[in-house]
């Protein structure tokens, strides 16, 4: 592996060239003891002053091509990314993810500037430095957090933390009297660019809050914050509370309207169902009625059958028209013929006459036998 020479340094003191001379035998025997990337996420990332790199082995700088090919297991590529990280959001996380995945075996150090430096060069922050440090420690891509990071990177800082590359978006960052605070890093070949996430930034989030300030102030008043905590005047407090009451009434009216619409829709659905059921039942009733009482209905046939049965039951049996002739004895005279049907003559005048007629009818039967 190439080794840096003492004269291969830029004006800023950052090495920029390599020598092909191999390291001495005593240096080769020393193993690297640099911290390794985190393998588990059960604990937050440590701070640099808690786990600084005290490796005694020579820390030769790598080129981007060498780093992409991979390094020995005991020698990860140490990538540094810095920033303010106020209101830590997905854009910050994506930038750190890119820095972490630039090389196969990377150890990501993240520098966070203090409140004093940030307020001096950039402006007031929403979160204080302790909150911003903790936010970075709980990002899964971060292996180590450096508190009170410098605004401009110096050779001493790079050497102290044994930094191989610096990751940041490649848009020139003008600050602290410089057109680009990463200019000397780019010239030394230590800069690796990352991509910004469009549509999300700390300034955008603050702009949304300022634009909808009244909404958030009213919301926090509802949640129990006092006007003093929100820095709201007495008049504005009363105005916000009145607006909250108006919004509650509007919400109630809206809920009543929605429930009324739901009720009307349900009634319409039920009435439609009832009409359909009534039509089905009416068709069924008419069909059954016609089947029973129609011209060829079962009721007519049943009525005719029963009528014929009743007529047969009420009507007497008719005697046969011609009866077989019997051989009569010559000694006997033919018996008189009697009609079984009642005669049309007047009834007997007395009971005795009736009895006499009955007896004569019986005698006539005996003679026939």
TrEMBL record:
Domain Cytidyltransferase-like stretches: 80-208
InterPro entries: CCT, Cyt_trans-like, Pcy1-like, Rossmann-like_a/b/a_fold
Pfam families: CTP_transf_like
Biased amino acid composition, Low complexity: 319-362
Keywords: Coiled coil, Lipid biosynthesis, Lipid metabolism, Nucleotidyltransferase, Phospholipid biosynthesis, Phospholipid metabolism, Transferase
Reaction catalysed by this enzyme: phosphocholine + CTP + H(+) = CDP-choline + diphosphate
Any coiled-coil regions, as ranges: 239-266
Gene3D superfamilies: HUPs
Enzyme Commission designation: 2.7.7.15
Gene Ontology molecular functions: choline-phosphate cytidylyltransferase activity; phosphatidylcholine binding
Known pathway: Phospholipid metabolism; phosphatidylcholine biosynthesis; phosphatidylcholine from phosphocholine: step 1/2; Lipid metabolism
Region Disordered, annotated ranges: 1-26, 309-369
NCBIfam families for the chain: cyt_tran_rel
Role noted for this protein: Catalyzes the key rate-limiting step in the CDP-choline pathway for phosphatidylcholine biosynthesis.
Family: Belongs to the cytidylyltransferase family.
Protein name per UniProt: choline-phosphate cytidylyltransferase
Organism in which the protein naturally occurs: Erinaceus europaeus (Western European hedgehog)
